[in-house]
Amino acid sequence: MTTHDAQTRGAQGQPATGQGAVTGTPDEVLRSILQNLTYEVMPFKGTEEKVTSLVPTSTRITVTASPGKTLDDTVGLAVRLTEQGYTVAPHLSARMLKDRAELTDIVARLGEAGVPTLFVVGGDADQAGEFYDALDVLRALDEIGHHFTDIGVGGYPEGHAAISDDQLWKALEEKSRYAHHVATQVCFDAGTTVAWAREAKRRGIDLPIRVGMPGAVSRQKLMRVTAKIGLGDSARFLKKQQGMLWKFFTPGGYSPNKLVRGLKPHLGDADVNLRGFHIFTFNDVEGTEAWRQKLLRGLER
To answer: How far apart are CA 65 and CA 49, in angstroms?
Structure first.
């Protein structure tokens, strides 16, 4: 058992959803969100050791599914981290699923392992079977039955290159019938994210929103990881935003601080439902956790 495990084992088995409205001063709200954020990791060799040695078990984890890996890689890592005491949401990519039988088997495996959460995406792979998008999978899950207490779906504050805004909103409205929260794709402009969240609320989409953002990542790490996995899932935003991304780098790497500062005044607002952060770590877990702890220390002064 790691030091982090010993300190946080009491939270095992209790999903730290952090989805309810948080009240208090802006600093108090931000502190609560930083204590209950989600780290997204990729199922590479060494990922499990990084997470268990650096991240407290009270921090939620999501595990990506991308064309460069298999769903078995994703599910396997999710199961192992759950056994270590983490609350883990494996990504389930619609286009990587063969059929309903495979979906049923995955649900059963995750149920047996005690994995209570799931994140459903369409995915960037070529369609492998009967499922085209996340809504197809959500409907199938509802029909076959499942044990999940928290299902996440994606949101697009800046839209999607291949899907119209009207289609995106209609899809999110439909997915919200089956989901428990939304995690957004990366958007570096806080105002755009806030406006999108406000529009979601106006449309009657009342799910808690976790704002997607990169963690504290070095330029070299980001280039290595994206070259290894291709433009899929957590790296998708680079295809259209890489020029903007480089502007955010300092000599030490990228820091989410500017985006956090822009979001901070709105985190407790009732009309936007911004309830958390979803951090794309690109497996730079050490740097991202160090950033979070530094920010938390600053809020305690």
So the answer is: 19
pLDDT digits (tens, 9 = 90+) for 163-203: 899 999 999 999 999 999 999 988 888 999 999 999 999 99
What is the per-residue pLDDT across 85-106, written as a single tens digit (0 to 9) for each?
999 999 999 999 999 999 999 9
CA angle 48, 49, 53 (to 5 degrees): 120
Q: What are phi and psi of 40, to 5 degrees?
A: -95, 130
278 phi and psi angles, rounded to 5 deg: -115, 110
Query: 3-class secondary structure for 82-93?
Result: HHCCCCEEEEEE
Q: What is the set of domains in the chain, with CATH numbers? A: 3-299 (3.20.20.220)
